[in-house]
Design a protein that fits this description.
alpha/beta, Nucleotidyltransferase, domain 5, 2 domains, five-stranded mixed β-sheet, 7 helices, 14 strands, 28% helix
Length: 277
């Protein structure tokens, strides 16, 4: 399967007439193939993107099966171009090769001594989960890295997200490393919560210090959701331990949704890892 990672956005560059330049940047997962081209803002449309994707395909021999996009402002235009070319367009934060390429170009973008971050995205403040999806209880938990796949991969779980690149063996984790996570007991809303999370596309789950403190779920491209808030100091200590364990597990953690603590039925399981910029 051929995958391209694509960004299309305005840059802090102008031509002699003062027009803002937009840039299309394409690479494959290993950056063995890259394609970069700029256009005036007046040309920045779906038709232009389609023509450039076709041009890039001529250089890369054929069009990709999937295009991955991390920037919300790019997604709709690239999705429309993908539809015309029969290419699936996927919104994901995990565009590591593309983000590395853009970072390498950051100095070129930074004109007049101004620092420009080509990966910067505007993120909304965290939003509470819908009340009708709130679980009955939740807790922190750990599982040995060596048990994660065996414990969940073969179980009949309605929503199961264990990407290959996040498997402990592919992150180089020893089987004895404790991988931290959060378990939500959803009761009667358990499956509904799991299905909602499936649509939201969880990325990572963080402890946020504050009054109250809380757990914030990073999801989708820029979404943030408040999963829980708490003031109890024992819970705060557990949350701090949770974050420490994430450092020891190279950022790998998990989210598990189940109806109750019987361990008989699971509704959803996600392997998570914060994006590395």
């Amino acid at each position: 399967m051929k995958i391209w990672q694509v960004d299309f956005y305005r840059r802090p560059l102008k031509n002699q007439q003062g027009e803002v330049w937009w840039e299309l940047v394409i690479c494959d997962l290993t950056r063995s193939f890259t394609y970069e081209v700029q256009c005036r803002q007046s040309e920045a449309n779906v038709t232009w993107i389609v023509s450039q994707l076709q041009e890039a395909a001529g250089n890369a021999k054929h069009l990709p099966d999937i295009i991955q996009v991390f920037r919300p402002q790019s997604f709709n235009l690239i999705q429309l171009a993908g539809q015309q070319l029969n290419i699936k367009v996927e919104a994901t934060r995990h565009t590591y090769a593309l983000k590395e390429l853009l970072q390498d170009k950051a100095e070129y973008y930074s004109t007049n001594g101004d620092n420009y971050n080509p990966l910067a995205l505007d993120k909304p403040p965290p939003t509470p989960l819908p009340e009708n999806l709130l679980g009955e209880q939740w807790r922190f938990a750990t599982l040995p890295a060596g048990d994660l796949v065996e414990a969940f991969a073969e179980r009949p779980i309605p929503v199961l997200e264990m990407p290959e690149f996040l498997l402990p063996i592919n992150l180089g984790l020893a089987s004895t490393v404790a991988v931290p996570g959060v378990i939500i007991y959803g009761g009667r809303q358990s499956l509904r919560l799991a299905r909602w999370l499936e649509e939201a596309k969880p990325v990572s789950l963080h402890f946020i210090i504050g009054e109250p403190a809380g757990l914030v779920l990073e999801a989708g491209l820029v979404d943030r959701w408040v999963v829980a808030t708490f003031e109890d100091q024992e819970v705060v200590k557990s949350a701090q331990t949770y974050e420490q364990r994430k450092q020891q597990s190279k950022g790998l953690h998990f989210l598990l949704v189940q109806p109750d603590d019987s361990g008989v039925t699971y509704s959803g399981f996600w392997l998570l890892k914060a994006e590395e910029l």
